[in-house]
């Protein structure tokens, strides 16, 4: 009977994975479709990819998104690591409950609320101090850092908790300053978590439509905003081609990150 | 922890360094997370105006006195118009059933993953994570081509001769459920898996030794011990889905009225910022209980 239940959950797992992957596989197949009608197969073709690469507006949006995502991920890793360190190592301090609430709330907060509230903040700020004068890259960056920090903090704090504290104590006993101990001992140990935190923040920023739509101005259009407006106009094979590229690139990067993180972890386990 | 700090007079540096390190992320979150909600509250109490920005000022300085004019009209308007109430109820309903469907599908998946060998665990975990890293928008978009009247499911069913006329699936609540379960499933699987994989197997063996049938062990040992994972997963699905905009906009129809979509329209189409702010405020009040529940789970995780 133990076996019977096991197969049931295994079946559900197989079904769930099929459910997760089938739509993406179909999208990839149909991106090579000659026909303009998305669901009628008319032979293999890469013409939609060619059309994609000649779309100036789209390529500009890709660069904008990549730049914002890169800068957001870097800042989110710095802030998120600090937040995680505070949560795990600092013990109790005044305002810790408020701090931990603010760090976990962005994980679940609906995008429309975050987007609207940040926009209203920026409008109020520019009225009060004249900054930010214009909404665009800067305001999207601030918004993305704010919600990505929460994800980085979760990833890094779970790694920090697993870390052997005696290494830190030994370094301190040997006379290293807290700062030196942090960079020479803690950072190398939690490096895989920092990398995966960075990648999560990068993909979250790259993916965000709702918050960016609220806080961006005419000067900044991100890739999801372009995709969303063209999807609204109807299904086009060009979007299939774009989707395929995104899926393949992200999968490749995610797989590589996972591979390196796993290798580093196994090596560390062997050493300890 | 012991410190050896006499040499460089670091003692004086540490407390200030400590508050400095707390100060940076703390002030970032205060300014960009907490203060915005206070501003939303303020604007929800103002009046819509045709100005830039399009709302009246709550604090007015007239004849050397500061007048605070709070306009409750936006909130009363939300009560008067059936549309908003219907949107809130429909959002809560869709979020609730989505969480239930994700749980029914996600729990067995997490269970099977936790039972797998270490090598398989790593592969399965990556397979669950990978879709949530690829674009959310594109995964929602993929379903349009599948659910359309001349889409894959209808074509297949008609080719098989099961149906003669296409089933209307796109632009219905059914499509919204499919889209939501599809995109939020990993958020349910991961916390449950995290708990199940840490579960002490000796407890299950003890239960079996004491004569419990496998389903009894499951119901009375495994399920209660995974309670926190279930709560966390359900909240990770329920809370964002209440405010969901993209899925009802792309897959839903006129019947799938959701509060996130209404807020978006009030803001971008009607340019009524105070009403949008009031909608967000009420949504936040509704979500306080589930957010507190999620925070409690996170705090417990931090302690363990």
Structure characterization notes:
Chain A: It holds the Pfam family BPD_transp_1. Chain A: Belongs to the binding-protein-dependent transport system permease family. CysTW subfamily. Chain A: It is found in: Cell membrane. Chain A: This is ABC transporter permease subunit. Chain A: Residues 62-257 form the ABC transmembrane type-1 domain. The complex is a heterodimer of chains A (272) and B (304). Chain A is mostly helical. Chain A has a single domain, classed as MetI-like (MetI-like fold). Helices cover 80% and strands 0% of the residues of chain A. Chain A is built from eleven helices and no strands. Chain A is globular and about 70 Å long. By secondary structure, chain B is mainly α. Chain B has two domains: 17-72, no CATH class; 81-271, MetI-like fold (Orthogonal Bundle). Helices cover 72% and strands 3% of the residues of chain B. Chain B has a two-stranded antiparallel ribbon with strand order 1-2. In chain B, strand 1 (59-62) and strand 2 (65-68) form a beta hairpin. The two termini of chain B are 20 Å apart. The relative contact order of chain B is 0.12. The model of chain B has no long low-confidence stretch (mean pLDDT 86). The chains are: A mainly alpha (272), B mainly alpha (304). Chains A and B meet through helix 1, helix 3, helix 4, helix 5 and helix 6 of A and helix 1, helix 3, helix 4, helix 5 and helix 7 of B.
Low-confidence stretches of chain A: none
What is the CATH class name of chain A? Mainly Alpha
What is the CATH architecture descriptor of chain A? Answer: Orthogonal Bundle
> What oligomeric state do the depicted chains represent?
heterodimer
Strand percentage of chain B: under 5%
> Would you count the extended β strands of chain B for me?
2
Element pattern of chain B in H and E? HEEHHHHHHHHHHHH
Give the distance, in angstroms, between the N- and C-terminal Cα atoms of chain B.
20 Å
The radius of gyration over CA of chain B amounts to 25 Å
Write down the Rg of chain A.
23 Å
Beta-strand percentage range of chain A? under 5%
Summed over residues and divided by their number, the pLDDT of chain A gives a mean of 86
Protein name (chain A): ABC transporter permease subunit
Transmembrane segments (chain A): 12-32, 58-86, 107-129, 141-160, 181-204, 241-261
Family (chain A): Belongs to the binding-protein-dependent transport system permease family. CysTW subfamily.
Domain ABC transmembrane type-1 (chain A): 62-257
């Amino acid at each position: 009977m133990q076996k019977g239940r096991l197969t049931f959950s295994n079946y559900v797992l197989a079904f769930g994975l099929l459910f997760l992957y089938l739509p993406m596989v179909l999208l990839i197949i149909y991106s090579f479709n000659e026909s303009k009608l998305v669901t009628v197969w008319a032979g293999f073709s890469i013409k939609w990819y060619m059309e994609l690469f000649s779309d100036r507006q789209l390529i500009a949006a890709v660069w904008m998104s990549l730049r914002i995502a890169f800068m957001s991920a870097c800042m989110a890793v710095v802030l998120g690591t600090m937040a995680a360190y505070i949560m795990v190592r600092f013990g109790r301090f005044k305002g810790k409950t408020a701090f931990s609430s603010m760090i976990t709330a962005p994980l679940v907060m609906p995008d429309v609320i975050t987007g609207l509230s940040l926009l209203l903040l920026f409008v109020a700020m520019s009225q009060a101090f004249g900054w930010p004068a214009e909404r665009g890259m800067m305001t999207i960056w601030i918004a993305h850092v704010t919600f990505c920090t929460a994800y980085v903090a979760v990833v890094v704090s779970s790694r920090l908790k697993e870390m052997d504290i005696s290494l830190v104590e030994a370094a301190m006993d040997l006379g290293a300053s807290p700062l030196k101990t942090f960079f020479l001992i803690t950072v190398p140990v939690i490096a895989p978590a920092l990398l995966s935190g960075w990648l999560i923040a990068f993909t979250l920023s790259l993916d965000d439509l709702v918050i960016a739509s609220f806080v961006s101005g005419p000067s900044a259009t991100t890739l999801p905003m372009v995709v969303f407006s063209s999807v609204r106009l109807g299904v086009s094979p060009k979007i299939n081609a774009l989707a395929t590229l995104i899926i393949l690139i992200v999968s490749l990067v995610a797989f590589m990150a996972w591979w390196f993180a796993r290798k580093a972890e196994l090596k560390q386990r062997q050493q300890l | 922890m012991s410190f050896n700090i006499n040499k460089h007079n670091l003692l004086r540096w540490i407390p200030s360094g400590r508050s400095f390190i707390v100060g940076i992320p703390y002030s970032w979150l205060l300014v960009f997370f907490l203060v915005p909600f206070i501003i939303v509250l303020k604007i929800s109490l103002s009046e819509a105006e045709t100005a830039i920005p399009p709302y009246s000022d709550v604090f007015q300085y007239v004849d050397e006195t500061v007048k605070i004019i709070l306009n409750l009209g936006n909130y009363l308007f939300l009560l008067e118009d059936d549309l908003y109430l219907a949107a809130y109820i429909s959002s809560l309903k869709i979020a609730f059933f989505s969480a239930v469907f994700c749980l029914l599908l996600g729990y067995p998946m997490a269970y099977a993953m936790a039972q797998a060998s270490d090598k398989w665990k790593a592969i399965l975990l990556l397979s669950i994570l990978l879709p949530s890293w690829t674009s959310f928008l594109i995964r929602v978009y993929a379903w349009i081509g599948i659910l359309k009247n001349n889409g894959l499911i209808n074509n297949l069913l008609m080719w098989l001769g099961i149906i003669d006329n296409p089933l209307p699936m796109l632009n219905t609540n059914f499509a919204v459920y499919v889209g939501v379960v599809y995109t939020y499933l990993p958020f349910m699987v991961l916390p449950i898996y995290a708990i199940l994989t840490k579960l002490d197997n000796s407890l299950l063996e003890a239960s079996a030794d004491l004569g419990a049938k496998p389903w009894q062990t499951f119901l009375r040992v495994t399920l209660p011990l995974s309670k926190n994972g279930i709560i966390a997963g359900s909240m990770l699905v329920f809370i964002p889905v209440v405010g969901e905009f993209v899925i009802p906009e792309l897959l839903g129809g006129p019947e799938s009225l959701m509060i996130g979509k209404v807020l978006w329209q009030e803001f971008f189409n009607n340019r009524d910022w105070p009403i949008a702010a009031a909608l967000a405020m009420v949504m936040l009040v509704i979500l306080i209980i589930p957010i507190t529940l999620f925070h409690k789970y996170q705090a417990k995780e931090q302690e363990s």
